[in-house]
What we know:
By secondary structure, this protein is of the alpha+beta class. The chain has two domains: 25-124, no CATH class; 142-182. 50% of the residues lie in helices and 16% in strands. It has helices spanning 2-15, 30-33, 37-43, 82-87, 89-99, 125-140, 150-182, and strands at 49-53, 59-64, 77-81, 102-107, 110-117. It has a five-stranded mixed beta sheet. Strand 1 and strand 2 form a beta hairpin. The longest helix has 33 residues, at 150-182.
Amino acid sequence: MAATGLANKRRMARRGVSNVAVQPPPIPRSEDLRPELTKIVAQLAPDGVIDIRSGRGKLTYQLAAPSVALPDELQPVIRLSANAARAEWSDARAYARIAGVVFVLQVDGVDRAVFRRHPDYVPGKLGEMVERHRRQLADQHETVAPAGTAEGEADLLRAVRLLEERVARLEASRLENRTTKRG
């Protein structure tokens, strides 16, 4: 009975009966775009936007025409052909989702689409932990003065001295390991 009901709804929708709701096209999964990526990018309308969901159904990525993307988002981008993006699809998705890298996909050398993390995407708990880790790493690294300045020369000498000390410790440790193995 359910199958005939669905068939009737489809038949009525084809005839233009207004009381039957026509479903919008489903939001594609990111894995499903890979085989046809070059064709999809080439056919993207000048004001087109395709929201892309992850395997669990969460909106994760967006493929948009360059005219739709915000100008500040187009500053630090990686330009690559749609075919290269298709070949490296897993990595492109990971960089877009985790690092927020914006890719401009080209067809025949012309910018045709912007592939980016969806603007509404909120990383889960792991994303928060990764961001905290990045901040900690940034706090640990001191800023280095430009080369050619007195401060830059001092930083360079300090770095060389630290490396020499580290190499000396490694050599001493290796020598100690050799003697303990023999004895």
